[in-house]
Each structure stands twice: as C-alpha cells, then as structure tokens.
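Quick one: structure tokens for this chain, please?
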Amino acid sequence: MFRKFSTSLSRKALFGNPYLSSPKGLQRFTNETLVHAKALTSHLLTNSDNVSYIRDLDRLSDMLCRVIDLCEFIRVAHPNSSFVKVAEDSHNIMFEYMNVLNTSFGLFKRLDDIVKNEQIWNSLSDEEKSVGKLLHLDFLKSGINMNDETKNKFIELSSYIALIGQEFNNGVNEPKETQIVIPRGNWKDNDIPSDYKKYVSKSWDGSLKIPIYGSTPFGILSTTPNRTIRKLIWSGLHSVPDSQLQLLQSMLKGRSALSMIMGSDNYAEYSLMDKMAESSENVMKFLMQLKQKLEPKVKLEIEKLTSFDPQLSQLDPIQIKPWDRDYLIANYLSKQKSQNIVDLSKYFSLNTVMNGLSNLFYSIYGIKFKNVELNEEDTWHKDVKKIEAIDKNGQKIGNLYLDLYHRLNKTSHPAHFTVVCSRQIAPVELTDQFSWSEKSVETISQSNGDIYQLPSICLVCNYSPDLNTGETFLSIDQIGTLFHEMGHAMHSLLGRTKLHNVSGTRCVTDFVELPSILNETFAKDIRVLCWMGKHYKTGESVEIHKSALEQHLRNEALLKYTESYSQVKMALLDQLVHSNAPVDGSPNEIVEMYHQLERKTYFADDISNWPGKFGHLFTYGSLYYSYLLDRSLADHVWDKLFEKDPWCRKGGEKFRMEVLEWGGSRDAWKCVDKVVGDNLSMEKL
C-alpha cells in the first residue's frame, strides 16, 4: 500500500491549502481568517437573518477551527521549528478571539431570542436545532448571562484552573524520591537478578538503594521474589512530592468554586449535564454495577496467576497487591512459553495491516483507499503518506494523511487530528465578503448540487522500521492501536452533517470513543487477523500459525477483566474527587479518600499517594468513565452486527447510517438504540 503511488496534486502546500507553503503563509492565513471572522461577527450582530443565524454562527466556528485545529496538529508533528512557532502564535491569537466570542452577550442574546421564538425555532431543521442548543448551552456554561462581578470571577477561575491543571499535569512523572532504600535484613543477594545488580548500590549500613528511574525498577519489580522489595519499588514508582498533591487540591478547589457560581452542587454535576450520563449519580451507579460484575472474573484471573506461585497461592485473592501483579504475570508467562516460538510480527508489516484495513472498510462500508503521490511541498515530512477515501459510488469523501514513523520533536502518543471537518457550504459562501482570497479547502459537489467541504484527517503513530529488512513490523497491540485511531478517522470521514459543530467526532465526550473501540475489536478477532496477516516476504498466511496466534491473544487477555476493573477504580476516583473531595483540609485527605476506595477492591493500594500521578483528573475532569461506557456500548454493537460475520456489509451500513453519518447531530442514545435496540440505557449495560 505504501510502495506505489498514482494520483498527483496540483497545489504545492500542506493539505492542499495554498496559504500553507511556508510559515509566513500560515501567518497570512491566520491574519486573513481573523479579519473575516471579525467581519462575520459584526454581520451576525447587526445584519444576519434570524433563520440563517445558527448556520452563520456555525460558519464562524468553522473559520476559527480551521486555524486552531490546524495549529494544534502542526505544534506536535511539524519538524520545522519556524512552522511550529508560527502555529503556536496563531493558535493563541485565534483562541483568544474565540474566548472573546464566548463572552459576547450580543451573540448570545440573538441566539437566545431564536431559541425562545417558537415560530422561528420550528422553521429550523433538526440539525440546526441541535447546533443551536449546543451553542446556547456553551454560552450558558461560560457564564454569559451573569452579572459582571460573577462573570469576571468565572473567567478568573477558568484561567486559574487551566494554569494549575497544566502545572499538575506537567508534574505527574516527578517521583517523591529518586531512589528507594531496602533496609538491611529485608533483602538477600539473590533477590536482585544479576542483570540489574550493577544498577543498585549497597550503603555503609547494609541497606540497598534502588533507583526509581529508567528500566531498572520495572525489571526488578517483575522478577524479584522478595515481596518487600516489590512493595517498596512499586510505592516509589507511584508516589509524588507533596507539592503535586497541593496542586491537585488547588485544581479541585477551583473547579468546586466554579461549579458553585454556575449553580451546580459540584463540578461533576456541572460537567455531566450535557453528556450521555447526565449526572454523577448515573455514572456512579454504572461504575458500581460494572465493578460488581467484574469482581468474580477478577478473582478467577488472580487465582489463575497465583496458581504458579507456592507462596502467593496460599493467600486469599483479596490479599494480592498491585506490587505482586507484574511479578505474577512474568512468572505465569515464563511457564507458558511455546517450544516453537513464532515471530508473528513478520506477518503484520505496516503495508499488510493498512491493506487489511482498506479491505475491511471496503467490506463493511464500501469505502476504498486510494494512494496519492505527494511532492515535497505538499507535506511536512517525506515519510508522510496520503490516502483518498472513495465511497461505493466512486465519489471522494475525504483525505487521510498518515504520519506513522518515529522522529524527534513529534508527539509520542498515537493520535487522530481533524484538520478540516466535513460540512455543507452554502452557495453564498463562495462569493461573499467573508471568504478567503484564495480557496483554502477542497470541496465536492453532490448529485443534488449540494457543495461539501471535504475533511482532512491526520493519523499520528511512532513506528520504527526493522534495521535488517527495512520493513515496519507491528505487534498485535500496535495493530489494535492503529485500528483504534482509524476508527476515529472513519467517524470523521463518514460524518455527513451539514454543520461543523456536529461533524464526525464532534459529539458528546462519552460517545466519541464508540467508533474507535468498535474498530479496535476487529483487530482482536482471530478471524480478521488470520484473514489479514501475510508474511512480508513469502506472502504465506499467518493462519498456518493460528495456534500460536491464539496463544498470543490469550496471553494478551490474561488480565482482561482486571484491566477493566482498574479502569473502573480510576473512574470512581475521578467521580469522587469531583463531587465530594475535601478541598479545604489537608491534601492528604484526598489520598485518604483514595485509600478508602482502594481498601474495598482487588489489587488494593493503601500506601502510595498515586492520585498525584493521575493526570487525567485534569484532562478528563469527571469524564474518565467515558471509555468504559463506550466499551460496553461497543460490545453490544459488535454482538449485534459483527459477531457472526466481521465482514458483514449489512452490519457496516447500519452502523454507518445510524451512528457515523450523524456525528453529534442526533441524541447519542437514539443512535445506539437504532443499532442495538432493546431501549439500552446506562442501567442496562
């Protein structure tokens, strides 16, 4: 798939946008966008027709995001520091203007009048109503109708939370100590595997010092039979300085104060009011039910692991601790090693997996991938590949850029970026005074004459070619990650809403992971893997090693329920600290809340101050349950549509038409019900 290219582009600039041929061009694009955005804002405040007001607001939002989303991508992926610097400046300029708009009472008042005017409201399409409600709630959640004193307090708190939260996130990898000390008498020489002895040191008093950085602590944790050493290492790896806990408490205190001035009892209630879950009470019920369902299965997984350890097998499963986990896994897997070791990755080169994805999407959605030649000026790096997505009617539906290889100064996290989202372009937009001087986005005309802005999506991963063969081989886990991110990409490519604010992945936070998790499920299906996997050199099917592949999948799923259980515990903590955290006492009270939660669970941690390392408390802020909810939904969708036949076109078309095409324009529960039926709800999951 990556070896042959066919079609060439005529425009020499990033994403086919003629402005983006240089950093100065990005600067010009930003400045011109800002001028047009201000002009459109003035028009909205004075001249915009009531019926077209929501569409015009949506267009304004798209203008800003054309710069903001683009710059968010360039900042983490572009190798040119000049481009990155301009992207940072451009992002700040446009984000600042977006904040001005979010506090514009004039814009809100016009929208508020339309929402409350029954005659105008009833003349709007369902999609316009969805966007109108969304923007109206965004204004309200930004404190738009408050008095000046309260509004200033809201702005002050929002800025404070953002700053403190980022500082908290920056410190999650800072250990409380750089080494741990094992007292004399608590260790024997053979407790430290020979591979790691050179990295530890003995003190004058006979104690042992082990560093809490690099691979050494993790290596010892998974190999030493000494439980005391494991406990101290694990605690050291999961503890933070007191200053980190103080930052966490300050952030939670700020969020609590913000929710109070917004009329909510706590931050969780404020955050969840417009989500699928609707309330913290619903989330807690869902999580506690899931915890209860998982516990018998977690108990069995622990018993399976400990059966190979004479010492730990004597303990009740509830007595097994998190510092035993890696040791037990390594011990178990060492007993499971096959006599005939097969390097399965040789059957899953990047080319093979991408071809498999292309064939899968054609089977279930009727979507084909077509390679496109890129010139040096068209891209930010020579390793980047471009694919056009073509539907079953032969019509192009979007562009997909693949930046999949490791390089310095590039984000280390696999990610999906929507640089341009799909939306309908009104004919007037092609000629009015709010348009760019040069066409900056690719469009397509449908058979009915409607013009759509084509989405441009970027997938970022960090693979490395094999030094001996030059091929890039993927592990089963990496295949799952690529499928996951491609699930997001298909959501963006197949979304066919008329408005920007509900396009593709622009849906409620606790629904957005459903397509990606569902797509990841294909990568864990033995039928799909056997169908897809082919030896990079001989073309031999991996099915010849089906038993080895099945064993690998079993090993990967060794703690399947324990992993979900751990996520439940983290989601419960996220809810608790955002609904009932002791924000006025000692920061250690938050740790005690965590320990109280842990004491009632398997793999209980009652010694570390780990909440200070839980960066998602800032980034998710009471929404960490979302992945678990979407995992449950994806399981139901899989069972309904693809369990019997993972290549089922009928199932794919149903998911496409009832979920993907709607983006965020339809109630998420309605989308699920159209696919699964059974009037599904959080209580029934």
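The first helix runs from residue 23 to 46.
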